Amino acid sequence: MAHHAVLLSGLRVTHGDEGDARFVHYVLEHGFRYLRGDAAHARFWDAPMFHPAANTTAYSDPLQGVLPLYAVWRAVGMSPDRAFQFWAFTVTSLNFLSALWLLRKGVGASSGAAMVGAVLFAAGSSRINQANHPQLLPQFYSVLAVGALLALARPETSRRAGAGWAALLVAACVAQLYAGFYWGWFLGFFLALTALVALGFPDTRAKLFQGLRTHGPALLLWGVVGVMALLPLVQHSLAAAREVGLRSFGEAEGMVPRFATWFHMGDTNWLYGWTGRLKTFARIPVEGEHRMGLGVLTLVLAGAGLWHARQRPVARLLMGVVLVTVLIATRYRGGLMPWWLVFHGVPGANAVRAVCRMGVWMLLPASVGLALFLSRQAREGKAWVAALLGSVCLLEQGQSGSTFDVAAARADVQWVAGQVGSGCQSFLYSPAGGNEPSWKYQIDAMWASFERGVPTLNGYSGNAPPGWALEPVIRADAASAARLDEAVRAWARARGLDVSSICRIETPPPH
């Protein structure tokens, strides 16, 4: 469901386009070469792009929490492109297995229902619609954190066992932040929101206070350890924020969910692709980020499953969290956006630009609700009904997303690398009259830097260092060529570079 396009191509293609997907791959490959001890990657936080700027890895997600899942495939001899594909397969498999564990052990769903719910979590439409942002794939740490929280809430969990669950909860939160900021921040936000919702029901309020009395010391102890473990990430991220500045709400405004966002499936969905042409969805700004729908039947059954199980605290909490989230995150007519208060009032929220990505988080309560509904059908002797409904729900998730040819992208990189002379101390790839988007040339240069072991002035990330004015990097005409030449001289003066030591590559690939 998640990677059929890659598998059916015989691994010839990879999900996404040659922009964000290859950038995420670049960060992982840089991390692997750091672990391997390559001289050009001796400092993890100083990836050799935007040369000679420092702390460039912190401009975006460093992905340390999922780096081992890539490094292991590279260590056994896979090429970078193949290792990246298997990294995606591994991450999706772990999403599935963690959700299966949570639904079986934490929620008590039947095995068949848990399987369907776990597939929904790992390969739901909203997640696969974000496949061009592979940093959004790894969410299994969050599932482990939720499972640990459920264990701590059980009255039969002893202090000794609770210490282990508290350690898992904190470790999962720390690892999720190291795996990617969005899911790490959303995990903290939704845990806090769950605690607030729990205060609204007498039984869950009692469970919350009892859990804190019983397991509070262990949570405090492991929490201190977790904070210490996060210090390197926090320090480098704050340093990057001081250098490049924080997001303004204007940058996030176009990606605050509309009412239609919660139902938008995108034009590549197998069953609902035709809805992408409807004005309600087509006129949404930054439309690709708003594809957070899960399908009519899936939403109905997931909601019904939670409602029928409302006597269970976990079901009521999930319904409450979903309701509050939709209410505070949705943009209303007239431009009213309650999220403005969250953006300016909650620590870290001003680093969340694509707010609507929280729709992917809704896969967790949706998978719980669907599993509970299907389990109920099975208990009532309607296993065939459960199988049929579960199959249709999964069919609703089917997507035919974009892909790019791995060999073609690699050939462009090899061509650029071949133009970097042995005496170059750094280089800039700024093709004259190139027909591809500027970001593709930037990333081609970054990957060519790997091949030659030479840093590049080119760069592509969530941010750029102050004074770097090499975007767009295409020499389209005399005016743009003069602008780039001056930008290179200004950058060299500001960063103490000898302009004559910078090799210039200005010819695009022959094709």
Task: Describe this entry's structure for a reader.
This protein is an all-alpha fold and 511 residues long. Among the domains are: 136-381, no CATH class; 407-505, no CATH class. It is 58% helix and 3% strand. It contains 21 helices and four strands. Strands 1-2 form a two-stranded antiparallel sheet. It has a two-stranded parallel ribbon with strand order 3-4. Helix 5 runs antiparallel to helix 17 (363-379) and helix 8 (159-179) packs parallel to helix 10. The longest helix has 43 residues, at 202-244. The chain is globular. The mean pLDDT is 96. This is Glycosyltransferase RgtA/B/C/D-like domain-containing protein.
Summary of the model, kept short:
The chain has 511 residues and is mostly helical. It is built from 21 helices and four strands.
**Relative strand content:** under 5%
Helicity, as a percent range: 55-70%
Structural class: mainly alpha
Major beta sheet summary: 2 strands, antiparallel
Which regions contain 5 or more consecutive residues with pLDDT less than 50? none
Transmembrane segments: 84-102, 107-124, 136-153, 160-179, 185-202, 214-234, 290-307, 314-332, 352-374
Protein name: Glycosyltransferase RgtA/B/C/D-like domain-containing protein
Keywords: Membrane, Transmembrane, Transmembrane helix
Organism: Archangium minus
